[in-house]
Amino acid sequence: MSFIKAMQQRYTTKVYDASKKLPIEKIEELKEILRMSPSSINSQPWKFTFVRDAKTKQKLSEVSLTNHQKVTDCDTLIVFSKIDNIELFEKQINENLTERAVGYYVNFVKSKGEANIRNWFDKQVYLSLGVFLSACADMQIDSTPMEGIDTEKFDEVLGLTDYKTVVAVAIGGRDVEDFNQLEKKPKSRKPLEEVVKSI
Locate the Nitroreductase domain: which residues (predicted)? Predict the structure, then answer.
């Protein structure tokens, strides 16, 4: 299947079939895809937690607001988190990045204050999210990005230190009765000429 066809057929899964399991090979491939995700100056201010354990998914489902059933029934829940320890982040980039890359961070990110640094971390995580959702579409894996979760409670359940949850993605196999499938609810997008300008 072509990539454009995969994107045309992709939709946000609303109901999962808990009996549908993904091959471990696909899970491992998705891990590597996330590792290879792009980030500004190769900063990589993130961590990705793959949750397949039923007890942990149950605990996370209880703090997932309206998304609780998706968390319970999906095959795997991936939690995207950003680094929250700026001192640790700066130590990492000083040890691993070029002087020019560190200079960009200091002059164009850090110079605008701590709030800007944390916002910049969020942006990098969302770059990886876009890559991940596209990969799932290409691999014909159903997915659901979710901001509707209690991120602080997620941090507690997962025991995250120095990182904070930003967003989560459920992946697995759709339920045959999922009301959001394209044959039941066609994809709605603005016309090309409204969103793309050619000069």
Answer: 8-172
